[in-house]
From TrEMBL:
This is Unannotated protein. Residues 1-25 are annotated as: Disordered. The chain crosses the membrane at residues 36-56, 62-86, 95-115, 127-145, 157-174, 186-213, 220-238. Residues 10-25 have a biased composition (Polar residues). Keywords: Membrane, Transmembrane, Transmembrane helix.
Length: 275
């Protein structure tokens, strides 16, 4: 392999070896038409869920789901924020990771419905919502950076005190799911339908988030916090009818995610971030 001298930078580089910028560009995850289709279908699923519960005529139920489903719009973060902050670029790692985690929660939501009843529902709207929600996993498949090795995800300062926030959030989710499900509906980011085994994945995420390198850590924490905050709103609407207060797990999870998103300047930096 030969070498060449660069007159502009005064350095000699190896021919045939990509520069760091080229490598970063090759590792970027772009939002193509396939991802867009999955994004649209997954959001349609959320709309259909709300329409179905509205058709039942039970005011608290459909209102709670309408509020809890609001953060599903985060699946379009690369297109929305990319257009506003990055001149139309959709391959910023922070944005694609938010879309990826949002797609994961949308997919888990549909799976949780399937787990509540092994039979396909007779209602076409509900069945459509359940199957369309699986498109969220398609968003995950097309946005997750498969060429990023495990050690590249882990921050050097993983022994930082922030690990405590992940453990606290995971504990409250697990404890609430184990002890209180059956008394009232538990709205979480991983399972809008109520308590189900899909929440195990969110527990694992909460434990893993503190170990992630910045600003990827902030992107995942922000997404979990946004879903949990909206889910808390749905929880409160449901609990108004049953006179029960839902101070956990979602408010605790959201607060822990706020701490995990610090420092904010890394998350909101205008500079391009690649995987």
């Amino acid at each position: 392999m030969g070498s060449a001298f660069c007159p502009s930078c005064g350095q000699r580089s190896q021919l045939g070896r990509p520069t760091n910028q080229t490598e970063r560009n090759q590792r970027a995850v772009s939002i193509d038409s396939t991802t867009l289709i999955f994004q649209v279908i997954s959001v349609v699923s959320s709309i259909l869920f709300t329409v179905y519960f509205h058709s039942l005529g039970v005011e608290p139920a459909w209102s709670a789901y309408a509020v809890a489903l609001v953060p599903t719009i985060l699946v379009f973060t690369p297109q929305i924020i990319g257009a506003l902050a990055f001149g139309g670029r959709t391959d910023d790692a922070r944005l694609t990771l938010i879309a990826c985690v949002s797609g994961l929660f949308i997919g888990l939501r549909s799976v949780s419905f399937f787990l509540l009843d092994s039979r396909i529902p007779d209602n076409g709207t509900l069945a459509g919502a359940m199957f369309a929600g699986l498109a969220g996993f398609g968003v995950v498949a097309t946005t997750y950076p498969r060429n990023k090795s495990l050690h590249e995800w882990i921050a050097d300062d993983w022994k930082n005190i922030r690990i405590i926030w992940g453990l606290i959030a995971a504990y409250f989710l697990y404890q609430t799911r184990s002890e209180l499900f059956g008394e009232f509906m538990i709205f979480t980011a991983g399972s809008i339908a109520g308590g189900s085994s899909t929440e195990v994945i969110q527990v694992a995420l909460l434990i893993a988030v503190p170990f992630l390198v910045a600003p990827l850590r902030q992107s995942v924490a922000f997404t979990i916090g946004a879903f949990s905050l909206a889910s808390w709103g749905g929880n409160m609407i449901m609990n108004t009818a049953t006179d029960q207060l839902a101070w956990r797990p979602n408010p605790v999870i959201t607060l822990c995610c706020v701490f995990l998103t610090v420092p904010w300047d890394e998350f909101f930096s205008s500079e391009q971030t690649t995987f």
